[in-house]
From TrEMBL, chain A:
Coiled coil: none annotated. This is Glycolate oxidase subunit GlcD. PANTHER family: GLYCOLATE OXIDASE SUBUNIT GLCD. Its cofactor is FAD. The keyword Plastid does not apply. It comes from Effusibacillus dendaii. It comes from the Bacteria. Belongs to the FAD-binding oxidoreductase/transferase type 4 family.
TrEMBL record, chain B:
The keyword Hydrolase does not apply. This is Glycolate oxidase iron-sulfur subunit. Its cofactor is [4Fe-4S] cluster. GO terms for molecular function: 4 iron, 4 sulfur cluster binding; glycolate dehydrogenase activity; metal ion binding. The keyword Calcium does not apply. Residues 19-49, 69-102 form the 4Fe-4S ferredoxin-type domain. Keywords: 4Fe-4S, Electron transport, Iron, Iron-sulfur, Metal-binding, Repeat, Transport. Its EC number is 1.1.99.14. InterPro entries: 4Fe4S_Fe-S-bd, 4Fe4S_Fe_S_CS, Cys_rich_dom, Glc_ox_4Fe-4S, Helical_ferredxn.
Length: 494, 439
């Protein structure tokens, strides 16, 4: 509960309509798209301007109230779960595109703009903003920036950080910071823009951003290659890259995923195949034609049973849209769907896919895998039931082993979903002790009171330090006490 | 009671609650938020509590005892239009409509309504709607009110101002009802014109049959023109949708049983309705009787016989039609589009009329705000949604807005009046339009 005096002050800032603090409101902002996590905030506030945000943050700083920034709550790392209570600051009302600058090829927008909305608006002008997370019809650009979201086009075009040129943000003391700008070249001082991109709401509230745009590719074609088995498709991915073709998108779906997606989208996917690749290439028409041909040949050589090219852009778009439904559609199979985000260098993809299957078998859990094959970003997804505590325990173990396997193959624990709470126990695996220390001192310098999204990124204690070395070592790690100090009534897995 | 007993009692309470709330289906929501942009109340308010995902989270919390069945929970559940656009959008296949009915049932069991609300509800839902004779009387009263000059008096004397503004606004949209004489003449059986293809029963509905008696008659004649012998099904009553949506599952089931019995005695194989909302309910009776040894199978047979008018007509050869000079747009009925997945058929039927210029309405399957009695219970939100809808309708430059459900039809008429478009466009039921072409 917020103190009455604080509630009054906040209402004066945003207007009484936009401070929500009933138990029902708090509950509705106690979760995001991450399964198994929940924790109640003390209140929810929906500011409409940067000045309001600054005023809110000042009140919180004075009172020591924790702040959790929130877009659409579609993240998969429990980034918006208010583990330490406090105030959820929802930025969806700040949803204006401020400017699309066709001369400088930039777009400036508020954080609450829905990702797909920006796509539509810039594309009307023949421009292109590539980052396209599977959730782009839901997610906000603020959330994308804070998570450094990737997407289906990540292989060729990179992720959010490759496009953000400048930011406006409110710091934990309520001051407004501006970083970067429209200049293509800008090397003055530390790169604070890059620091804030991917900071998961732990350093500042992002209130405006300027992104780089590129010309909209002239044409694009989509093809679908079906394989009898997983390894054939993974080999095809490696070969395509080795042949120096960089498609815009190369998505991978295993049999389990194909079935559920088809069940929802009904677009005629081959449900009897072991795996499919959905490949898209864009650019000048002749290049696109040539690349599609070459990739089709490679797929056939690596054992594709069938390769078909979409007849029209609409048909292609439908395929890609279906891919975006993959995760949510998997939720049909069982009550709880836990998705992970292990990433390996793309040449190791086949090995990783195999390992996931071995690990799933070892722990007797049901895992489907799909993902952005082109950039080695896999989403092994486990269908389970949160009520079955024993199985959840096995799921945790399996995922732990999957992360370790990814790291051993030279990969990482998250390709795009962020660390949040879900993966904070593994961060040190990736960045090392020194990395953790540098990150912590940055956090300390910018947010000495630790009011910005506390309880994320850094594990509270070092109880669970997994040693690289695989299965046995993983077993030694402190048993699955929820090692993050979270006291919510739901709890954490892996 | 010992502590142990108290505990089991409250546990039983929770278990019972979980069942009514369809807890297993609630768990299937993976909170991805894909439904947010489809939800009209979320779009208007931006609040998670007014979104499908938020409502499901609150249901879950109530089912597990984490949240009370509070006044806010009550109003949040009734703030939902029940349009089920979220169901279409949800890749995880969460049956939101069923969840909502369960949640409202729990609300009704746990919350005390003010006496006046209870009386009005009791009279309307139990004494009026389900009883054909009483609806007949209502229709006569309405006829008298409209034709005797009483309406003019009421409108000019300012008497209308005494009514809540929601009622006053909707009163303007109520069509001229049929005369008692016309109602008496209703034929119990209408033979097929030309070659006979099949025999169908007609489900006339309750409100539909009072307010849109002529549309029901047109539907019968239309079916006949498409080659059907049309029988009026004796003993039928209200479909129960309004009751189920208002959390009164008991009464809804009572009505369903009556309809099932009427159907069994009629010997009809196919039963046609022309109201998207009723149709969705009629097709869900088997869910209502899930696990009931006596009724589940009977309900399943009943459900198998249900067809929406558009659904059936689209399978029959189109009779000769005359040309109509309209520019037409179509507003989906939510329960037809999202509930019954019937979208294409009405559009094809409209376009099969020669001379018609068809324009697709942007976001045609977004709720118009009518939603059963939502436009009376949540008047302001309903009108906010309607005004947004009318902007899009106006943009089509159509002179005819076609709907497939009585509630939507009334709402579109109110919308046309609110937007001051009376001179430019009309709203009609699809049966009336098609009948005009085959007449
Ligand atoms: C089905 C599905 C598919 C997905 N596919 C992808 C994918 O392909 N690629 C991908 O990268 N992600 C994907 N995601 C994850 C998710 O959509 C992204 O992380 C997205 O960027 C979150 O945006 P949001 O607006 O929902 O942010 P939220 O979930 O609300 O917030 C995410 C994080 O950002 C912080 N934050 C939000 N707004 C601000 C702000 N204005 N200032 C500071 N911090 C802020 C929050 O505190 C939180 O830590 C997917 C999710 C789902 C459910
Ligand atoms: S789309 Fe379905 S699974 Fe996703 S949040 Fe909405 S109801 Fe839940
Ligand atoms: S039924 Fe309609 S109003 Fe209700 S949650 Fe679903 S989309 Fe929103």
């Amino acid at each position: 509960m917020l103190k009455p005096q604080v509630a009054k002050e906040l209402k004066a800032i945003v207007g009484s309509n936009w401070l929500l603090d009933t138990p029902e409101d708090c509950l509705a902002y106690s979760y995001d798209a991450t399964p198994l996590y929940q924790s109640m905030p003390d209140g929810v506030v929906m500011p409409g301007t940067v000045e309001e945000v600054a005023a809110i943050v000042k009140v919180c700083a004075r009172e020591g109230i924790k702040i959790v920034s929130r877009g659409s709550g579609s993240n998969l790392s429990a980034g918006t779960v208010p583990v330490e209570g406090g105030l959820v600051v929802v930025l969806t009302r700040m949803n204006q595109i401020v400017e699309i600058d066709s001369d400088n090829l930039t777009a400036t927008f508020e954080p609450g703009v829905i990702t797909a909305h920006l796509h539509r608006e810039v594309e009307k002008l023949g421009l292109f903003y590539p980052p396209d997370p599977g959730s782009m019809n839901v997610s906000t650009l603020g959330g994308n920036i804070a998570e450094c979201a990737g997407g289906l086009r990540g292989l060729k075009y990179g992720v959010t950080k490759d496009y953000i040129m400048g930011l406006q943000a409110v710091l934990p003391n309520g001051e407004i910071l501006r970083t970067g700008g429209k200049s293509a070249k800008d090397v003055a001082g530390y790169d604070l823009t890059k620091l804030l991109v991917g900071s998961e709401g732990t350093l500042a509230v992002i209130t405006e951003a300027t992104a780089k745009l590129i010309p909209l590719p002239e044409s694009k074609r989509t093809m679908l290659a079906s394989f009898r088995d997983l390894t054939g498709s993974a080999r095809a991915v490696s070969r395509i890259i080795a042949e120096r073709i960089i498609p815009a998108t190369m998505e991978f779906l295993d049999n389990g995923t194909i079935r559920v997606v088809e069940d929802f989208a009904r677009i005629g996917l081959p449900v009897d195949m072991g795996a499919i690749l959905m490949i898209e290439q864009d650019g000048p028409e002749s290049v696109v034609e040539r690349d599609i041909q070459r990739m089709a040949d490679i797929c056939r050589k690596e054992g594709a049973v069938e390769v078909s090219v979409a007849n029209s852009p609409e048909e292609g778009a439908k395929l890609m849209q279906a891919r975006r439904f993959a995760l949510s559609a998997l939720a049909r199979i069982s009550p709880t769907t836990i998705l992970e985000d292990a990433t390996v260098p793309r040449a190791r993809l086949a090995e990783m896919v195999e390992q996931v299957n071995v690990i799933a078998k070892k722990y007797g859990v049901n895992i489907c895998t799909f993902g952005h094959a082109g950039d080695g970003n896999l989403h092994p997804t486990c269908m389970t039931d949160e009520r079955d505590k024993e199985e959840i325990h096995r799921v945790e173990q399996a995922f732990e082993e999957i992360f370790l396997a990814a790291i051993k193959l030279g990969g990482t624990i998250t390709g795009e979903h962020g660390v949040g709470m879900a993966k904070m126990n593994y961060l040190s695996l990736k960045v090392g002790e020194t990395g953790i220390e540098v990150m912590k001192s940055l956090k300390q310098a910018i947010d000495p009171q630790n009011i910005m999204n506390p309880g994320k990124l850094f594990a509270k204690d070092t109880r669970r330090r997994v040693v690289i070395g695989g299965g046995a070592a993983a077993e030694q790690s402190v048993s699955h006490q929820h090692g993050n100090g979270c006291e919510c009534n739901e709890h954490t897995a892996g | 009671m010992s502590t142990q007993q108290v505990e089991t009692a409250s546990q039983n309470g929770i278990l019972q609650m979980m069942e009514t709330m369809h807890y297993d289906d609630i768990l299937n929501c993976m909170r991805c938020g894909f439904c947010l942009s489809a939800c009209p109340t979320y779009r208007e308010t931006g609040r998670e509590t007014a979104s499908p995902r938020g409502r499901i989270a609150m249901m879950k919390a109530v089912a597990t005892g984490q949240l009370d069945v509070s006044e806010k929970f009550d109003s949040d559940m009734y703030f939902c239009l029940g349009c089920r656009a979220c169901e279409t959008a949800c890749p995880a296949g969460v049956p939101y409509g069923t969840l909502l009915e369960g949640a409202r049932e729990v609300v009704e069991e746990n919350r005390k309504r003010p006496l006046i609300t209870r009386i009005i509800r009791h009279v309307a839902m139990k004494k009026l709607i389900p009883q054909a004779k009483r609806m007949e009387q209502v229709s006569r009263l309405l006829y008298f009110y409209q034709r005797s000059g009483l309406r003019r008096l009421a409108r000019s004397s300012g008497l209308m101002k005494l009514l809540p503004k929601s009622m006053a606004e909707m009163e303007k949209a109520v069509p001229e009802v049929a005369s008692p004489a016309a109602r008496k003449e209703r034929k119990r059986m209408l033979p097929a014109k030309g070659e006979k293809r099949l025999t169908v029963g007609l489900f006339t509905g309750c409100v539909m049959d009072v307010m849109f008696f002529d549309t029901n008659e047109a539907t019968a004649k239309l079916l006949s023109a498409f080659g059907c012998d049309v029988v009026y099904m004796e003993g039928q009553t209200c479909c129960g949708a309004l009751h189920a949506h208002a959390g009164d599952k008991q009464e809804a089931k009572q009505l369903a049983k009556q309809n099932i019995e009427a159907f069994e005695q009629s010997g009809i194989d196919v039963l046609i309705n022309n109201a998207g909302g009723c149709g969705a309910a009629l097709k869900e009776y088997h869910h209502w009787f899930h696990g009931d040894p006596e009724w589940e199978e009977r309900a399943e047979r009943f459900v198998a016989a249900q067809r929406d008018m558009n659904e059936l007509l689209a399978t029959l050869p189109v009779p000769k039609m005359r040309s109509l000079p309209y520019r037409v747009t179509y507003q989906d009925s939510c329960h037809l589009a999202h509930g019954q997945k019937i979208r294409l058929q009405p559009r094809e039927l409209i376009q099969s009329i020669p001379g018609i210029e068809y324009v697709e309405l942007p976001e045609a399957d977004r709720c118009c705000g009518s939603a059963g009695i939502y436009n009376l219970t949540n008047f302001d939100m309903s009108m906010q949604i309607l005004d947004g809808k009318m902007k899009q309708v106006e943009g089509t430059k159509a002179n005819l807005v076609v709907t497939s459900n009585p509630g939507c039809l009334l709402q579109m008429r109110a919308g046309i009046q609110r937007a001051g478009l009376e001179g430019q466009m009309r709203a009609v039921h699809i049966a009336d339009l098609l009948y005009e072409a085959v007449e």
